Automatic annotation (TrEMBL):
Gene Ontology annotations of biological process type: membrane protein ectodomain proteolysis; Notch signaling pathway
Signal peptide: 1-19
Pfam families named in the record: Reprolysin_5
Annotated Peptidase M12B domain residues: 191-425
Top-level taxonomic group: Eukaryota
A GO MF label: metal ion binding
Residue ranges of domain Disintegrin in the record: 425-496
Keyword set includes ATP-binding: no
Protein's recorded name: Disintegrin and metalloproteinase domain-containing protein 10
Record Gene3D superfamilies: Collagenase (Catalytic Domain), Disintegrin domain
Record-annotated active site: E363
Any GO CC annotation of this UniProt entry: plasma membrane
Keyword Transferase applies: no
């Protein structure tokens, strides 16, 4: 009996809280003692103080050891001096709101202007940083209609087999074979789509203030938002997220008129450009044959108020043309590409990051075989990510795939995902409890509903460990006494269970709880 009681009490996470149940100034302590810093961030008319930690991009699951930044497009000959710049010194920001660390998490970056750009998931709300008050949440920016293009060949099996040119041999051709590897216990196997990101000169100048650090951070933040959406999607409907993610292999930034002309020619000389021609020019880059998908970030406006364009994968089961993820290079082009517009036809108007991130995830959905939800009679599929209109709603559904989209993407993954790499690395935020995690509530915007006892990805669980106060995501929430996954001693309301009816004397539980409470009090006194 005593052994059972010890198990019930020792599973409790140690949290620091004041007597009134609030966290108090512990957020300040974390910022001062564990490499965090306090940032005042603006979200429209709201201002929130965030406790943020800057982490090198190289430590992110969105990069790998081969990730590099290039300023030159494909050279005409063997690339003797074709060198990339490392991403190790470029940082992203992760943290939580000081006001309520347990219910909120923040992800983004600090710009060259020292302002925070990114998202704050606060309870059941998602706020987007708007440092200069330029984002109007009620404004309609454009449509997704006719954004999925047909590649100029009728069937994927009509494509030429990949040819190994001198350039391809020198840089290493994309490996289509998948290596058999044993699984790592306690870790959900992820399937990763490698990316090539391109920023044209207009995007570099207008949306990143001609800063290499800023342009990389902005693109990586957009990819991160799409990544967590895909990671949490249960495409095969087995009740468990499929853990499909992204990793950036190449970043190409066109900083000069000469490099811009080499890729797009004189296409970019008009105010509103033909998005289809833009995508076709982008598809000529030879390095696209080494990645799963290529994403172009354009600082221009596309005609007809189009926000983005992509080639839709044939694997979705609805016919159509070849293209999308893993598409092999043929006839001098790779149709595993998509493009996002960051300008409107209105003078000096830019597409805000929240709309650009939504557009990116939407176009990636096309690349994985999804079609517009409006095409299906099922009303349950409406109002999700693959709708044909850009949405200003904040109900969270527009950042999730509908059942109709999931089934199309599942068909693509079962037949056309041979270029996805398998990875066995824990990922906080994919909705799967893995090694080192007490819990995982998945999408931060859904955590308060899905698992209120759990701290979201990047959230502020305050844990005293090895003499230092730490912040961790995927941990028991600061004001929760326990988590239901820890056993029958914890209720769904994150409270200790009354096990008297089960033959366990409650005063024994109280005895051990008091001992832990005294230890917590000593920790609080040190702060």
């Amino acid at each position: 009996m005593d052994l059972v009681l010890m198990v019930c009490t020792c599973i409790l996470s140690i949290h620091v809280a004041k007597a009134d149940g609030t966290v108090g100034k512990t957020g300040d302590v974390v910022c001062q003692t564990d490499g965090y810093e306090l940032i005042e961030a603006k979200f429209g008319k709201e201002v929130h103080t965030l406790c943020l930690q800057l982490k090198p991009i190289g430590t992110s699951p969105l990069t790998n050891r081969n990730s590099a930044l290039f300023l030159e497009p494909d050279p005409d000959e063997t690339p003797k001096e074709y060198q990339g710049f490392p991403l190790s010194e470029i940082t992203m920001a992760y943290g939580f709101p000081v006001k309520d660390p347990g219910r909120g998490s923040a992800e983004g970056y600090i710009g060259e202007d020292h302002q925070f750009y990114g998202v704050l998931h606060f309870g059941n709300r998602t706020l987007h940083a708007d440092p200069y008050g330029k984002d109007d949440p009620t404004k309609f920016f454009g449509a997704f209609e006719n954004d999925n293009m047909a590649a100029p060949r009728s069937r994927r099996d009509h494509a030429q087999p990949p040819q190994r040119s001198i350039f391809a041999r020198s840089v290493g051709y994309f490996p289509f074979s998948i290596e058999n590897r044993s699984r790592v216990p306690g870790v959900a196997r992820a399937r990763i789509c490698d990316l090539l990101l391109l920023a044209d000169k207009e995007f570099f100048e207008k949306d990143a203030n001609s800063s290499l650090n800023h342009v990389v951070r902005r693109m990586m933040h957009a990819i991160a938002q799409a990544d967590i959406i895909f990671r949490n999607a249960d495409f095969n409907e087995d009740g468990v997220p499929d853990n499909i993610g992204f990793s950036v292999k190449y970043i190409l930034v066109l900083t000069s008129t000469e490099t811009n002309m080499r890729v797009f020619g004189d296409l970019l000389s008009t105010k509103a450009i033909n998005g289809r021609n833009y995508l076709m020019r982008f598809a000529r880059l030879r390095r696209l044959s080494e990645v799963c998908l290529g994403v172009a970030f354009s600082g221009h406006a596309f005609q007809n108020r189009t926000l983005g364009l992509s080639f839709t994968s044939l694997g979705g089961g609805m016919g159509g043309a070849a293209g999308g993820l893993c598409d092999r290079r043929a006839y001098g082009r790779s149709f595993n590409t998509l493009a996002i517009a960051h300008a409107t036809t209105e003078d000096k108007a830019r597409v805000p990051e929240r709309i650009a991130a939504l557009t990116l995830a939407h176009e990636m959905g096309h690349s994985f075989g999804a079609h517009h939800d409006d095409n299906f009679p099922n009303p349950e599929c409406r109002g999700h990510l693959m709708g044909s209109q850009s949405s200003t709603a904040e109900n969270g559904m527009n950042f999730e795939f509908s059942l109709c989209s999931k089934r199309l993407i599942a068909a693509t993954l079962s037949s056309m995902s041979y270029c996805l790499m398998e990875e066995d690395i824990p990922y906080c935020g994919n909705g799967i409890v893995e090694e080192g995690e007490a819990c995982d509530c998945g999408l931060p915007s859904r955590c308060v509903h899905k698992d209120p006892c759990c701290t979201p990805r990047g959230g502020g669980a305050l844990i005293y460990k090895e003499g230092t106060l730490h912040k961790e995501g995927c941990s028991v929430a600061p004001l929760a006494m326990c988590h239901p996954s820890q056993g029958l001693c914890c209720t769904p309301k994150c409270m200790l269970a009354d096990l008297t009816k089960s033959g366990i004397v409650s005063n024994h539980i109280i005895f051990y709880t008091i001992k832990i409470s005294k230890f917590i009090k000593k920790i609080a006194e040190r702060l």
